[in-house]
Amino acid sequence: MELSKKVAYLKGLMDGLKIDENTNEGKIIKLMADVLEDMADTIEDIAVEVDETVDLVDAIDEDLGALEEDYYELDDEQDDDDDCDCDFCDDDEEMYECVCPSCGDKIMLGENIIADGSIDCPNCGEKLEFDFGEDQDDE
């Protein structure tokens, strides 16, 4: 049962009980029923607006998805991470994640960059050096 129908049913019960609206209790019950009716109307209005908003957001999401497909020309099978257009990456090369100790930026590095021994952080410019000449496995 809808909220407004429940409130109408409650008001009908009040009329059937013949509550005297001239008494303090009758005044309070009448006022509470009127407040419930206003609240039910407001809630139903909000529910309609929410439904309309959800429909609108769904339509925008579909349109945005179509625009992304057209603009980026991505197939459903492609993964965004597989398409790196930078000069440092080789598709067959294994990638490693490095965190810059100065700025905390995460950088993806290929084996060829690590083999070079150093790179400047693209975020802050700090020189990052890699030295894997000796494994320290003294334990």
Mean pLDDT: 81
Query: How many E strands?
Result: 4
Class computed from helices, strands and strand pairing: mainly alpha
C-alpha Rg (nearest Å): 34 Å
Overall geometric form: elongated
The end-to-end span amounts to 73 Å
| Amount of helix | 40-55%
Number of helices: 3
- What is the chain-wise order of helices and strands? HHEEHEE
Largest sheet: 2 strands, antiparallel
Residue runs with pLDDT of under 50 for 5 or more positions: 76-81
Strand content: 5-15%
Please give the domain count: 2
Structural overview:
Strands 1-2 form a two-stranded antiparallel ribbon. By secondary structure, it is mainly alpha-helical. The chain has helices spanning 3-16, 24-72, 111-116, and strands at residues 95-99, 106-110, 118-120, 127-129. A hairpin with a 6-residue loop joins β3 (118-120) and β4 (127-129). Helix content is 50%, strand content 12%.
Explain briefly what this protein structure is.
With 139 residues, this protein is mostly helical.
Which terms summarize this structure?
two-stranded antiparallel sheet, 139 residues, 3 helices
